[in-house]
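Q: My labmate handed me this sequence with no annotations at all. I'd like to see what the chain might look like in three dimensions before we decide whether it's worth expressing. Could you predict it?
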Amino acid sequence: MKVNVLGSVAVFERDGVYQIYCKAMQEDGVGDLYAKFKELKDKLEKEGLFDAEHKKKIPMMPKVIGVLTSNTGAVIRDIINVSTRRNPNCYIRLYPVPVQGPGAAEKIVDAIRFMNEHKLADVLIVARGGGSLEDLWPFNEEIVARAIYDSELPVISAVGHETDFTISDFVSDLRAATPSQAAEIAVPLEEDLYLNIKGAEEFLNKEIKGLLSKEREKVKSLEKMINLQSPKEKIVNSYIEIDNLKKRLNSKILSKIYIEKEKLTGINNLL
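A: Here is what I predict for the chain of 271 residues:
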């Protein structure tokens, strides 16, 4: 192990030997891990694994939430508590995986692939609690990042605390600051669903009423057109036209008779 030691140094002049009196010691290597983190992040970013166009939409009403985390500890309890409180109809399917230590990355990859192959969930939550960079390191492994990217199921990354960032956060479809927040994102609030349904119902009723009103106006317009073009209407119009012609004809006959009477009266007077 690489370590940083804090203490005082003494020299044995006779032998030329240095000795350190250790007061404190901590593991070194965080700098090396951060360099690896930065190198992998830059590499995957250039390949486009973090691009928004590859992000899958989190389903609005998932029936099954797949959780990949340790089967012990606060994380799974927090997710279950939040999920149950928000919507007891959502089913939580836990796939236990180690979240730190040797071999953890490989187990996480296997879990993601297994959940995808058997379609065991509508959305996946990859989660663990907070910890040091070394503790969170499985979620900075390239094989985990590529497994998340290749997942057909949407993946929410909830690794560490709010200030912790891992490669899994960047490559996942959505990052949650904490496992509890991941549950809030994945599980819809039952009250909100009822309100959304109620709002949709009111909107549809309004749209249907508006559509029916427009169609009624169309029907009325068509009825008028049909009435104007109907044989009955033509016959009625013809009767009216005949009456007008009769009136005009009678008027002309009367006028002619009057004129002829006047002529006849004039001839009688001459006679």
